[in-house]
Amino acid sequence: MPVPPPLLCLSLLVSSCLALSHTEGALAPAPPRPKEPREDPEAEGEEWAGAAVGVVVVKATVMAAIILVSVLGNVLVIVSVALHRRLHSPANYLLVSLATADMLVALCAMTFNASVELTGGRWLFGRLMCDLWNSFDVYFSTVSILHLCCISVDRYYAIVRPLEYPLTITRRVLGLMLTHCWLAPVLISFLPILLGWYTTADHLRSRDAHPHVCAFVVNVVFALVSSAVSFWVPCTVMVVMYFRIFQEARKQERALLNRACSANSAAYSASFRQQQQQQQQQQQQQQQQEQQQPQQDPPTEVVSRQQLLVALQGTPFTPATCHQEIVMNSLTPDAANCGDARGGSVTKGNGAGGTTPGITGGGVGGGGWRLKRHGSTASWHGSVRRHPPCERRLHSTPLVGTRSSPMAAGRREHKAARTLGLIMGAFVLCWLPFFTWYVSINVCGPSCRCPHAVVTALFWIGYFNSTLNPFIYAYFRADFREAFHRTLKRLSCCRARQPSGVFV
After folding, report:
1. What global pTM score does this model have?
2. Rounded distance, CA 241 to CA 187, Å?
3. Averaged pLDDT for residues 214-225
4. Cys bridge to 452: 19, 106, 402, 408, which one at CB 3.0-4.6 A?
C-alpha cells in the first residue's frame, strides 16, 4: 500500500531535525517498509526546496564571514612576517606555519562543509572528493591543534627555563617540531580514510547506494585514537605548560616586587643620612656666624597676637598684590634642640628697611617662626623660617620604587593571566564541545544522537578557532601589530599606484 503524502512529509521533518539514520514505516495495516538512510538525495532535495530563504541567507552570511576573515587574517600574518626582517625569528616560524594550517582549514574544510549545508546535504563532487574532504578536515584541523601545542612548549622554555631555551629550542628542534606537526596527522587522516579503515561495513555499503551523500561515519576505535591524537593529548600538554608559565610569571613578579621594596629601603636610608649630614653642616655654619656677629638683629617689640591679627586684617589682600612663598622646613628628631612652636610670642622689630612684624616661637633653643613684611613695599612676602640651630629644608628625594610599583606589578600579572586565559579559553571553548560529542556519539551509539543543527554548530565552532588564532597569537603582540599596520599601508599604497592591484 503506498504511503500517504502527509505521513511522508512528517517523516522527512522528523528525520531532518533529529538527524536519525533511518525512517520508520507507514500505517499499521500496511506491510512494514524497509529502512532507508536519512541521507536520501531526493528527500534532502525536497527539504532544501522547502527551506526558509531567510535561514539560508543567515547561514551563508555567517559561514562566508568566518571563511573570509580566517583566510585574510592568516594571510596577513604570513605576508607581514615575510616583509619584515625583524620578525624573521625561529619562534615566529611556528606562527607562520600555524597561519598556513589555519588558512588551509578555511580553504579545504570550511568551504566544502558550507556547500553541503547550503545545498541541503547534497554532495556534488563525487566519492573521491568526499574522501579527500574528510581527510582534509581531519588533517588540517589536527595540524592546527598540534601547532598550538608546540607553541605552548616553546613559550614554556622561553619563560620558565630561559637559560635552557637557546640550547633546547634550536633550529633543528623547531624543524623537528614542524615536521611532526605536518606529518603525524597523516596517520589519522589520509591513510585510514582512503583505505577505508575508519568506518564500518554498513557505511561502506550505504556509500555505494547513495553517491550524492558524503557522511563521515567512523568506528569506535578510530574515534578514540583520532580524538586522542587531535585533541585530548595536545590539550593536556597545553594546560600543563600554560599553568607552569602562569606560576612562573607570578613568581617573577613577586621577586621583582621584593627587590623594588629593598631598593626603596636602601635609597631612603641613604637619602636620610645624606640630609642629616647636610643639616649638621648648615647648623654648624650658622652657629659660627651668630657667634661672630651676635648683635646684628634689631631690638624687638613684643605685641599681642590680637594686635597682629587686627593689623593684618586691616591690610587689603588681593591676588595682584599678595605673593606668598611658604618654605616647608622639617624638624630635627631632637625636640630639645628645636623647641616648641606652639608657645610663641609675637615680636615687632624695627630695621632699616621699615617695619617688619614677625611671629617667633619661644623654646629652649630660641628658635621660632617669623613672618616678615617688607615695609617699603605694598606686596607681602610670607616666608616661614626657623632660627638656627633648627633651620633646615625638606629635600624630597625620589626613591627607586613608589607606590605604583605594586599596582604596575599587579597590572602586568593581570595582563599575563588574561592573555593565558584567552589562549586556553579560546582553544577549549572551540574544540572541547566538538570532541566531546565526537567521542560520545561513537561510544554511546544512537542514544546520544544530537539534532543536525547542533552538530553543524559544533563543527563551525571548532572551525572558528582557526579564525581566532591569528588575532590571539599575533595581533596581541606589539611587533606584529606594527607589522600589520605597515603591511596594510603598503598594500593600500600599492593599490593606489597600480590599478591592477599587483603587490610590490
Report:
1. 0.62
2. 26
3. 94
4. 19
